[in-house]
Amino acid sequence: MRRHVGRLDPEARLIITYPATLILCLSLIILGFSFQHHWHYMVIAIFAAMQCFGVMIVTTAINAYLLDCYPEGSGEVSAWITASRNWAGFMATYIQIEWVTQLGPAKVLGIQAAITFASLFLIVFLQLYGKRMRQWQGRMSFGVEK
Q1: What is the pLDDT of residues 49-71, one digit of tens each?
Q2: What's the CA gap between 19 and 3, in Å, rounded?
Q3: Which of 19, 27, 78, 89 could form an SS bridge with 50, CB 3.0 to 4.6 Å?
């Protein structure tokens, strides 16, 4: 708090996404190789747990960031986050099986790790310009306020 002069901007919530994204990338890469080369099941279990751990940290940080940015739209923010999780779960089961069959698990999970790492650029952008974007946008308006 001393660094932030007693006020924590919502962008401070995003800092934890950096190590969590590295955990996610590492776990995806090792999971891909462990599936491809039939490593011991405990390797799969440990790195699948690491991936879940990373996902929980990232989604919690993004949820906290969005709710700090838009407290007046907490219901809408939560609905969009839930919908995004459902879409991701659907895409994983709908697309991934055929993708893994064609390219192999090491390549597919490596590509997913690269996409996950590239998402850090959005986090950096939000940390640099998020406050200015919110000031430019103004408060959320639902058309029911008088």
Answers
A1: 999 999 999 989 999 999 998 88
A2: 20
A3: 27
DSSP string, 26-45: HHHHHHHHHHHTT--HHHHH
Query: Do 30 and 43 form a contact (C-beta atoms < 8 A)?
Result: yes
Contact 49, 76 (CB under 8 A): no
Residue 114 has a CB neighbour count (10 Å cut-off) of 13
* pTM recorded for the entire structure: 0.83
What is the pLDDT confidence band of residue 143, given thresholds at 50, 70 and 90?
low
CB 108 within 8 A of CB 99: yes
Give the model confidence (pLDDT) of 94-105 as tens digits.
888 899 999 999
End-to-end CA distance of the chain: 37
**Closest by Cα among 4, 130, 118 to 62:** 130
